[in-house]
Specification:
spermine synthase activity, Rossmann fold, four-stranded antiparallel β-sheet, Spermidine_synt_N, transferase, Alpha-D-Glucose-1,6-Bisphosphate, Chain A, domain 4, PABS domain-containing protein, Spermidine_synt_N_sf, 7 helices, Spermidine Synthase, Chain: A, domain 2
Length: 283
C-alpha cells in the first residue's frame, strides 16, 4: 500500500486554443516517454468552452499515474487560453519518472512539456505530498499556504477543541501548530510576542495583566522576565493539552509557568477554563 500520494501541477497561459489531439500529444506522450508506461483515456468532456481529459497509466510496469488536463478557452480576444495539468501518483514521482541526467524531477518534467507549449507563460509547482499524517503545508492567518521544512514531529494529538502539533523545523526551531495553522515558533519571541506586548513602549511595572488565551505560555513567560514586571498576571486558556504539550516540548517559549506545580505563584495565576465565561463572571 502507498505511504503517500504525490500531486504534480503545471499551468500554461496560451495565445491559441490547443485541440484535444494537441493536448494529448503535448502532455501524455512526454509522460509515456519518461515513465515507460502507456496511458489510456478514461474520460473526456467538452462543455461551455472547456475541455476536460483524464488518463490512467496501464500499470503494466507497476507505475500508477493519473493525469487530468483541462483547457479553459479565452473569455475575450485579449485574454489567454488556460491549460492546467495535474499528475497524481502513489509514493514518489522520483521512483516513477526517469529523470534527465543533471536535472531534478521538476526540471525533467518542465523540460519535457514546455517545448510542446511554445510562446506560453508556464507556472510549475513542486510535487505536493498528500495523504500523510502530518502535512507540512500549513495555513497562515491571512490564508496563505506555506510549506515548512519539518525535521521531526514531536507531538501530534487532538484535544476536545483542536488538533495540536509541535514539530522541529529547519528554519524556525520548534513550531506549535493548531488546526493546521501556524501558531508560534521558538524564533517568534522578538517579532511576535514582544510586538503583542508593545515593547519597548509599554511599561508594565506595578500593573495587573489579563491574558485571554495564550496557552503556549509565551506572553506569561516574557512578562515575568521583564526588568520591571507587572504586579500580577492572570492567564485563562481553555485547552490544557496545549499547555501540557508546550511545557514538554517548547520550554524555551513558555519557561516554567505551564508546569502543573507552577501555575500559581506570588505574581501569576494560570486558569484552565473558558476566557469568555471568565469575563462574564467578572462583569
Amino acid at each position: 500500500m502507498p505511504q503517500l500520494v504525490n500531486t504534480f501541477m503545471i499551468d500554461y497561459q496560451l495565445d491559441y486554443e490547443p485541440s484535444e489531439d494537441q493536448l494529448t500529444k503535448s502532455v501524455i506522450e512526454p509522460f509515456e516517454r519518461l515513465s515507460g508506461a502507456k496511458f489510456e483515456l478514461l474520460f473526456k468532456n467538452e462543455v461551455q468552452g472547456r475541455i476536460t481529459l483524464s488518463f490512467q497509466s496501464d500499470n503494466s510496469n507497476g507505475k500508477d499515474i493519473f493525469i487530468l488536463i483541462r483547457r479553459y478557452d479565452k473569455a475575450g480576444a485579449s485574454e489567454k487560453t488556460l491549460v492546467s495539468i495535474t499528475a497524481e501518483a502513489p509514493d514518489y514521482f522520483d521512483d516513477i519518472i526517469d529523470k534527465t541526467p543533471g536535472m531534478d524531477l521538476e526540471d525533467t518534467i518542465k523540460d519535457a512539456l514546455d517545448k510542446n507549449f511554445p510562446d506560453s507563460e508556464p507556472t510549475h509547482y513542486p510535487a505536493i505530498k498528500r495523504c500523510i499524517p502530518d502535512s507540512p503545508y500549513l495555513r497562515t492567518c491571512d490564508d496563505r499556504l506555506v510549506e515548512y521544512g519539518f525535521t521531526k514531529v514531536l507531538y501530534s494529538a487532538r484535544s476536545e477543541y483542536q488538533k495540536i502539533q509541535i514539530v522541529d523545523t529547519v528554519d524556525f526551531g520548534r513550531l506549535l501548530i493548531l488546526d493546521d495553522m501556524t501558531n508560534l515558533a521558538e524564533t517568534d519571541t522578538l517579532p511576535y510576542t514582544h510586538t503583542l506586548m508593545n515593547l519597548p513602549k509599554e511599561n508594565y511595572e506595578g500593573k495587573e495583566v489579563l491574558i485571554l488565551g495564550g496557552g503556549d505560555g509565551a506572553l506569561m513567560n516574557e512578562l515575568q522576565k521583564l526588568d520591571k514586571p507587572p504586579k500580577f498576571v492572570t492567564m485563562i486558556d481553555i485547552d490544557e493539552m496545549v499547555m501540557e504539550a508546550c511545557n514538554e516540548f517548547m520550554p524555551t517559549v513558555c519557561g516554567p509557568y505551564l508546569r502543573k506545580d507552577n501555575r500559581e505563584g506570588p505574581t501569576h495565576k494560570i486558569i484552565v477554563g473558558d476566557a469568555v465565561a471568565f469575563l462574564e463572571n467578572c462583569l
